[in-house]
Specification:
rod-shaped; L,D-transpeptidase catalytic domain-like; 12 helices; two-stranded antiparallel sheet
Length: 377
Amino acid sequence: MALDQIHKTLAAVICILCLMGCVQAVPPDLLVALEAIDQDLIALRAPEAAPEEYGQFVRQWVSLKARVQLDDDLITWPWESSDLENELRRLYIMGERTVSQLHERHTSQHRTAQAKVDRLEERLHTIISKVESIDGRILLGEKAVQTGLLVKQARSFFEQKDFQRAMQAAEKADSAFKAQVLLLSQELGRYADESRIAYWQSLAKQTIDWSRIHQSTAIVVSKADRELTLYKSGRKMLSYPVRLGFNGMLEKRFQGDGATPEGRYRVTDKRGQGQTQFYRALDLDYPNAEDRRRFDLAKKSGKIGPAKGIGGLIEIHGADNELLAQTLGCIMLDNPNMAVLYEGVSVGTPVTIVGALTKENAVALALSELVQRRDEI
C-alpha cells in the first residue's frame, strides 16, 4: 500500500508540474501571427510584386504547417528548445520584412500612380478643349476616343489598387497623347509657319487694296480665327464669327473631305429664300484655275486617288437647314448676320479665304500649348 501511495503521489506531482510548467511545442499566437503575415502578403499583391520572396515564404509556411499538425499534441518543458518553433520564428521575421518592403513600395507606387493618373486626366481635358477649339476632332478620329478609354482604364486600375497596371495604362495613354499632338502638328503646322502666314497676309492685303482702289466691297475670311470681315473702300465695315466644314482647318484637296478651300474667289451668284436650302447663300467660283492646278498635281503625284473629284458648290450661307448645320466645306453664318452680309455685297465681290492673318492665331496658339503639355507626364 505504501508503494502504491508513493506512485500516486508522484503521478500527482508530475501532473501538477505539467500544469504549471509544460507548454505546447509551438505557441498558438505564433501561428496566428504567421497567418496574418500570409494575408498581408496577399493583400499587398506579393505574388506579382515579389514572386521570389513570396514563393519562398509559401513553400516554407506549407512545410512548417504540416510539421505543426504532426506535432500538435507534443508537450515540452519551457527550458527545452524547439527547432520547429525556431524555424517558424525565422519565417515570421522574413515574412515581416517582406511585408514592410512591399508596404513601402506600395505607398511609393500609390503616390506615383496617383500623380500620373491625375496629370493624365488633366491633359485629357486640355487636349479635348484644344482639339475642339481648332476643329481637330474629326482629324483625330478614333484616336481621341481610344486615348480617353486608356485614361479611364488607368483610373480604374488605380481605384482597384493595381498600381502597376495603372501606370502601364498611363504610359500607353501618354504615347497616344504624343501621337495625337504629332498628327495635329503635321496637319495644322502651317498655321505656325511664318512664310505661309506672310503669303496669306499678302493675299488679304491685295484684296483690301482692291476694295480701296475700286471703292467697292470685299470679304476676307480667316479660318484659324473663324472670322469673316467685310471691307468697303478698304475700310473694315463689320466682322462676324463663322463655322467651317467638318474638316475646315485642313487644305481643300478633293470633294467630300470636309475642308474649306483657301484662295482668292468671287461671288458668282446671290440666292435668296426659296432659291437655296439655306436661309440665304453667296455662291463662290470654286474651283478656280489655281484650285484645278493644285488638284491635278496632287493626282499625278498620287496624293489623291484616281476616283476622287475636285468638287464644287462652295458657298457663304446661313443656317436654316438643321440637317446641314455642319457644313461640308462652306462658310456658315448665323442668319441675322447672313442677312446683313447678303444685302451688303453684290455679284463679283472678291472673297479671299486664308488660313490665318497673324502668327498668334488660334490654331498656332493651341498647337503650341499642346506641344508644351506633351511631355508633362
